[in-house]
């Protein structure tokens, strides 16, 4: 169907341990989703359902998508990801059906993490989409989130946004995306973990990461991933030229750091 073309149902192998930093965020996920999933008996004793929503907010590139995918891996759940801003225009006139199909796919594939990126796009007052069309999508989303009876059992909906102030308050009411979690730019321990993660499968000499951790205070997770790729490019280039593998060295990392511009800016 039309809706099927804009999303895939993924099986993921990522784990929360792959996500650098975010201790507080991981704790929230543990309490809301992971713990209850692991122990059905205790979950029922305490009257907790196996479903739920959460709104992740924070500057771009700091791991919201990465985290949502890792949550799916950790839950043993399937993963469906969709950028709301990308589909809105495409769905004009058929948004109710498409949204319904999206949620039906999540229900069929439960347990499932349904990741709705840029969910604030639903609130944009000046979009080219008329306000009545926008209201229709918004209302349909609320209806799907509420569900009837237990249709959403096993469906975990994570919304993400860089602009939480634009997110419709109705979306955040109980039973919907009723937990709000800030995904911060990485602090020093998180930056170290992110660098290690992105270097883990690359040929690397003995390097000291502390100068890099100190020099990257204004970089996002995405920037750090880019830094590692740039360093790898330098060593790869030499390897290609000489025909021998030259491992990634301190100088490659530092040159890459000097070259990597922060993408977050004031947020
Ligand atoms: P946006 O708001 O632009 O959607 P985002 O917060 O969803 O951004 P991601 O797309 O998850 O950010 O991050 C981009 C990439 O940066 C990831 O694919 C990953 O390679 C890297 N990255 C970001 N944060 C982390 C992290 N905490 N640990 C490891 N890698 C990270």
Structure report:
GO terms for molecular function: ATP binding; ATP hydrolysis activity. Keywords: ATP-binding, Coiled coil, Nucleotide-binding. Belongs to the AAA ATPase family. It comes from Catenuloplanes indicus. This protein is 44% helix and 12% strand. The chain has 267 residues and is α/β, with parallel strands linked by helices. A 6-stranded mixed β-sheet has the order 1-3-4-5-2-6. Helix 5 runs parallel beside helix 6 and helix 7 (188-199) runs parallel beside helix 9. It is globular, with a radius of gyration of 21 Å. Adenosine-5'-triphosphate is lined by residues 19-22, 60-66, 117, 160, 162, 186, 194, 197, 221-222, 225.
Distance between the termini: 39 Å
Number of strands: 6
Radius of gyration: 21 Å
Q: Which percent range fits the helix content?
A: 40-55%
Mean pLDDT across all amino acids: 92
Structural class: alpha/beta
Q: Count of DSSP helices? A: 10
Within the largest sheet, what's the order of strands? 1-3-4-5-2-6
Poorly predicted ranges: none
Ligand species: adenosine-5'-triphosphate
Beta-strand percent range:
5-15%
GO molecular function, one term: ATP binding
Organism: Catenuloplanes indicus
Keywords: ATP-binding, Coiled coil, Nucleotide-binding
Domain AAA+ ATPase: 50-187
Short description:
It is built from ten helices and six strands, in the order E-H-H-E-H-E-H-H-E-H-E-E-H-H-H-H. The protein has helices at residues 23-38, 40-45, 64-75, 84-87, 95-108, 131-146, 188-199, 210-214, 221-242, 250-259; strands at residues 9-11, 52-57, 78-83, 112-117, 155-161, 180-182.
């Amino acid at each position: 169907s039309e809706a099927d073309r804009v999303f895939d149902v993924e099986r993921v192998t990522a784990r929360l341990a792959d996500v650098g930093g975010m201790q507080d965020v991981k704790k929230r996920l543990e309490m809301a989703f992971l713990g209850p999933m692991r122990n059905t008996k205790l979950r029922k004793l305490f009257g907790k359902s196996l479903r739920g929503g959460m709104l992740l907010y924070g500057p771009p590139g700091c791991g919201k998508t990465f985290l949502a995918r890792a949550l799916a891996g950790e839950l043993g759940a399937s993963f469906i990801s969709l950028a709301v801003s990308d589909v809105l225009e495409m769905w004009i006139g058929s948004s109710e059906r498409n949204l319904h199909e999206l949620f039906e796919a999540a229900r069929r594939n439960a347990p499932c993490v349904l990741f709705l990126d840029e969910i604030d796009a639903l609130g944009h007052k000046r979009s080219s989409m008329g306000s009545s069309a926008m209201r229709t999508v918004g209302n349909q989303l609320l209806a799907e989130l509420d569900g009837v009876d237990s249709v959403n059992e096993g469906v975990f909906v994570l919304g993400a946004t860089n602009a939480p102030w634009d997110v419709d308050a109705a979306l955040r009411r109980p039973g919907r995306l009723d937990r709000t979690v800030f995904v911060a730019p990485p602090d020093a321990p998180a930056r170290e973990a992110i660098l290690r993660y992105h270097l883990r499968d690359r040929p690397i000499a003995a390097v000291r990461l502390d100068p890099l951790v100190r020099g990257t205070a204004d970089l996002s997770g995405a920037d750090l991933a880019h830094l590692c790729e740039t360093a790898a490019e330098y060593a790869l280039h030499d390897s290609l030229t000489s025909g021998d593998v030259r491992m990634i060295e301190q100088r490659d990392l530092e040159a890459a750091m000097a070259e990597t511009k922060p993408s977050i800016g004031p947020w």
